[in-house]
Amino acid sequence: MNLMCPARLILVPDELPVEVPTGERVAAVYASPAGEATAARWAAELGVRLTVDPELTAGEALRDIADVHRGETVVVVVPGLDLGLAIPTDHRLVIEHTGDGWSVLPSDNEVTLAAYEQAADKFRDTLPHGRSEVMDRWFDRIGAAVPPGASVLELGSGTGEDAVALEERGYRVRRTDAAGSFVEMIRSDGYPADRLNALTDDFGGPYDLIFADAVFLHFDRAELTTVLRKARRAAACLAFTTREGEGGEWSTRFLDLPRRFNSWQEQPLRELLTETGWTVTHLERHQTRPGSNWFFILAV
Prior knowledge:
It contains nine helices and 15 strands. The protein is α/β, with parallel strands linked by helices. The protein has two domains: 98 residues, Phosphoglycerate mutase-like (Rossmann fold, 3-Layer(aba) Sandwich); 189 residues, Vaccinia Virus protein VP39 (Rossmann fold), CATH 3.40.50.150. It comes from Kribbella voronezhensis.
């Protein structure tokens, strides 16, 4: 244990689906009685001890935990805890106590978004030139389900190439991205675009289709749950791609900056879509390059 480093406390809302942190060791799980059931699932999944403390309802008790676990990471499940911080109700929050008060650490998604903010042009240079046959066939599949002329909300438009392809097929596309760098890139190419964070912003609508290409792989299960529920309220049909695989990983490939990627197996992904009100009407697998397998999914 490093006594010079502050503890990292992962605050978990009650009933959050278990998302095991990767790349770091969790030392313990703490909970108030109200959060015991959720905390027990975390402790069992992580293989660490669970401590249930009736006094764990205020910042003072939390500071005691931080003092004991300096240099370590612990999970704390205390529904309704008030630290004077904006604690999300739908995903975890990582905090540190520096001695002067609590500070919120950036989430995995925020770190990933910062990478795109800094390296949008570099990302564009990594993309292959020309449209792939796989994507052309995917657009054909979408066209069979959603007729041209339909309204489309694109989440994570990135460089804007997919939106151009959709408009060439007769769709009315609203381009959006959480990274201001991509929004400005699209605008400089002569197209309107809005800054929209799929986790925190309202989608507007209604739309006929929500389209997201290689976007959902940046969300963990709790975050993707939030996005899928919001999408269901905004559109009747959903088309997206995400990577097939196991769990999550950090990568600095291509951009030399950290990005978080989350991969899925088919059955858990189908189950999550069902839980959030979607019915899968079509699922394809494609290998976009050796060792990189992707799901192409349509749902209503």
